[in-house]
Prior knowledge:
- By secondary structure, the protein is α+β, with helices and mostly antiparallel strands.
- The protein has a domain at about 5-55 and about 200-335: T-fold (Roll), CATH 3.10.520.
- The protein is built from 8 helices and 19 strands.
- The strands form 4 sheets. The protein has a 9-stranded mixed sheet with strand order 1-3-4-8-9-12-15-16-17, with helices on one face. A 5-stranded mixed sheet has the order 2-10-11-19-18, with no helix packed on it.
- A hairpin with a 2-residue loop joins strand 3 and strand 4 (about 45-50).
- Helix 3 (about 100-115) packs parallel to helix 7 (about 280-295).
- The two termini are about 25 Å apart.
- The relative contact order is 0.14.
Amino acid sequence: MSYNKKKVVRRSSFVVRRFLIGLILITGCAKKPTEVYDARVMLGTVVEIKIVDADPQKARQALSAAFNEISRIEKLMSHFDRDSVLSQLNKRGYSTNQELSALILQAVEISRISDGGFDVTVGPLMNLWDFKAKVPRVPTIQQIRQALANIGYKKIDFDSNKNRIMIKKGIDIDLGGIAKGYATDKAVAILQKEGIGTALVNAGGDIRAIGDREWHIGLKNPRGKDILASIIVKNRAVVTSGDYERYFIKGGRRYHHILDPHTGYPAEQCQSVTVIAPSASAAVALAKGIFVAGPAKGLAIASSQPQTETIIIDTQGRLHVSTGLVKTGNVYKVKSEKQ
């Protein structure tokens, strides 16, 4: 996205590398009033926030508050920080943190909807594959079987009030598949609390827009550098999960980080899945669940959720589009949104 330097207030000298995963922010359609923008390295990625408002000072204050909220979420739910509430849950086997409990409850519900395609207990598998290693390797069948013994969202227990989470030894909850989306939603909530009506938050490709402004998002070709189409988003979240984000090739086969919790191996039916939903946390979790489920089941999953649409690119490069999207030329738009 190109920004008008005369109208953009930057609070960071950080030069942003645009690497939106699967989705590329192209432009907004409406005439721009004052825009306040900043980008920071958080949540293991680049988080961008753009606010459109007539009062730059109010916008700057709101932007700072939103980044503070993201930092709070990161400290709460980081899988890598040994002192985070999530890490303490995995270590002790229980937690009474109500915010963590509420998010894991949402994750469990999406696991149910996707028949376990999305599952936050996938931690042992992610640790086993270790896609961030300098020399990634394919685990042995025995290693995968051992990891699968501790996988399954039904292994997460809650007390009667849903405030206390309990897990058995060996269960490793990893919120990497939903936490960025949740942080995006919480940042948006802060912006709205501060009186901001129009803004866009992008946490490494987990995007949520608020307000009546239309934003054009580019849908990336999973096997190229071009844009397949654009998606018009207004007051919704849009997220893409793809097999090109983290992967390695061995023996002529692509091994990517979107693992099927049922098999322990990378899901095999899709190249990318884009989900448009009311919240970023739902969109990112559903995108992974649909990716594992495949095109046919994935379309059914999307249709079962209110105000949720999907674009699925299968392994042959074919597009499967939910019925709530209409295409005009090379642009997709949600049918229910006002023209």
